[in-house]
Amino acid sequence: MITGVDSNILIDVFGNDQEHGHASAESLRVCLREGSLTACDVVWAEVRGLFDDDAAFANAMNTLGIVFSPLSEAAASRAGVAWKAYRKAGGTRARVMADFLIGAHAALQTDRLLTRDRGFYRSCFKDLKLRT
After folding, report:
1. In this predicted model, what pLDDT tens digit does every residue of 77-91 receive, in sequence order?
2. Which domain holds residue 36?
3. Cα angle 120, 16, 49; round to 5
4. CATH number at residue 47
5. Structural domain tally of the chain?
6. Which residues on adjacent β-strands are paired with residue 80?
7. Whole-angstrom Cα distance, residue 88 to residue 82?
């Protein structure tokens, strides 16, 4: 089982979030026991900003067992289609393309997505399996 990890889960863990940090860390442990963890390039970039240098970031991701998984061309295309449908249906600009790229990557390149953002991904990527 390959689990894609959303930025919010990693930000909870690395940022010691008081509300979600423990639950997010436990969810990562469960998913790792069930298979492997990946993060797409968007998540990689968003989370990298939490660290002072590349070495600290690489060490943290390696410690958690998270592997870099770049977005495929098909996933990038699907993100664009999903974003267009979202905007056509009246979706606001509160959602940025990064959210769609993460969802499309998970839908096409993993078995499920670990996230706290169930509502958004459920509405825009109906076939995506979620672990929340």
Report:
1. 999 999 999 999 888
2. 2-127
3. 70
4. 3.40.50.1010
5. 1
6. none
7. 10
SS3 string, 27-40, reads: HHHHHHHHCEEEEC
Backbone angles phi, psi at 114, to 5 degrees: -90, 120
Q: How far apart (Å, rounded) are the C-alpha atoms in residues 31 and 1?
A: 8
CA distance 51 to 112: 26
Residue 18: Cβ-neighbour burial (10 angstroms; 0-12, 13-18, 19+): exposed
Residue 97 domain-assigned (yes or no): yes
Tell whether 17 is covered by a domain.
Answer: yes
Q: Cβ(35)–Cβ(2) under 8 Å?
A: yes
Q: In one letter, which amino acid is 50?
A: L
Q: What is the pLDDT of residue 77?
A: 98
DSSP state of 72: P
pLDDT band at 132 (very low <50, low <70, confident <90, very high): confident
Q: What is the mean pLDDT of residues 45-71?
A: 97
49 belongs to a structural domain? yes
Mean of all residue pLDDT scores within the chain: 95
